[in-house]
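In the laboratory, one determines a bound structure by crystallizing the protein with its ligand and collecting diffraction data. In a computational setting the workflow is compressed into a single prediction: the sequence and the ligand go in, and a structural description comes out. We illustrate the idea with zinc ion.
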Amino acid sequence: MLMCKDLAAIASDYIDGELPVLQKMSVRMHLMMCRHCRTFIGNLRASSNLLSAHSSGKADEEFLRRIDERVAEALLSVRKNKDSDSE
Ligand SMILES: [Zn+2]
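The predicted complex, in structure-token form:
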């Protein structure tokens, strides 16, 4: 079974569609059961969409830094919630 930290490690590959089918399926199963990771993936995907929309020209550093912060925040909230929410 995929754990939250495993999902966080492969989340960007999942969003880019670069995971093998089996791994992709375990991510989907985890997402069905874990709302924290759904939020995480949602944030990451939003960031990644923003990024590709923005990168038609040049990506400025301020923008990239903000994306990093969002991803870091999402990661932190996944870790924080993992321990208290073990149903
Ligand atoms: Zn999770």
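The radius of gyration is 14 Å. Keep in mind that any predicted model is a hypothesis to be tested, not a measurement.
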